[in-house]
Amino acid sequence: MSEDKSTPEIAALPKDKQPFWSQAKRALHFRCPNCGEGKLYQRYLRQVDECSVCATPLGKIRADDGPAWLTILLVGHLTVPLLLEVERNATWPMWMPMVIWPLYALALSLIILPFAKALFITILWRKQ
C-alpha cells in the first residue's frame, strides 16, 4: 500500500485527532484504519479480532445493517439508470434482461459490500 510520507506521523496521533479521510483511505484498502499496516478482514467480510501490527481491537465493532443499506443505495442508483437506458433501445428476447440485470446487481453488490463495511467499521471505530 502506498501511503503518503506523512502517514507515520498521522498514525501516531490519537484516533480522534487523525483526519477521517486518512483513516477511511486505509480501511478502503482493507487495512487497519489506525496504522494502515495490518489486515482489516480475515476473509471476505469477516473482520479480524485485532490488528496484527498495532493491536487495535476491531473484532467487536458491529457494523450491522449500515453496509447493506449503503450497498443497496449505491447498487440501486448505479443499476436503475443503466437499466432504463439500455432497455429503452434493446431488442433482445425477454429472458435476457431477466438474467442479466439480477446478475449485474448481485455482482455489483458483492463488489461494493466489503468497501461499505470497511467505511462503517472506520466510522464506528472512531466513535468508540
Strand content: under 5%
Dominant shape: elongated
Largest sheet: none
Spans of at least 5 consecutive residues whose pLDDT stays below 50 are: 1-6
How would you characterize the overall build of this protein?
With 128 residues, this protein is mainly alpha-helical. The chain has one domain (18-126). It has four helices and no strands.
Short précis:
It is built from 4 helices and no strands.
Defining traits:
single chain, 128 residues, mainly alpha, 4 helices, 55% helix, elongated, disordered N terminus
Please give the structural blueprint.
Blueprint (H helix, E strand, L loop, with lengths): L6 H6 L7 H9 L37 H24 L5 H32 L2
Helix pairs in contact: 2-4, 3-4
